[in-house]
Design a protein that fits this description.
150 residues, 2 domains, elongated, binds zinc ion
Amino acid sequence: MAVYTTAKCGHCGINWTTLNPNTPNTVFGKLGPPVIKCSTCYRDNKTNYKLIRDLNPLEKILYVKVKNIFGIILSLCFIAMGFYLGFVVTPGAKDEGIVPAVILFSVFSVAFVVVGVIGIKNNVNGSSDFDFLEMKYDSNGGFLWSNEYY
Ligand SMILES: [Zn+2]
């Protein structure tokens, strides 16, 4: 599903619209560049967003960690499902001699574990979207262009 974001310049009123799937996920509308410079009128717009490094420790847990924790729990569910398929469902099918089912369940079991492991790895490493955003924000000198963000 594409993330559809729309916003407006507070000075010239031009619409910033995007279907960019790489627009960082603004959890609870809180994370993002604090200043967006309009690429049409070149004026700064202050947002209510914060960069991750500007969040206080409580906000960091709420807006960053909670998402990662859910991601890790979901990944663990995938791994558990993979093991269940591999060690409970597949041997059952093997006992009954259903070969296509054995192959199918084995493939699914491995796929579930792989998806789970990748999910945990991504959530432990944190979000690269935001690293990129902060890097860009700094290299511009404390703002993002509206056409970079939207
Ligand atoms: Zn503008």
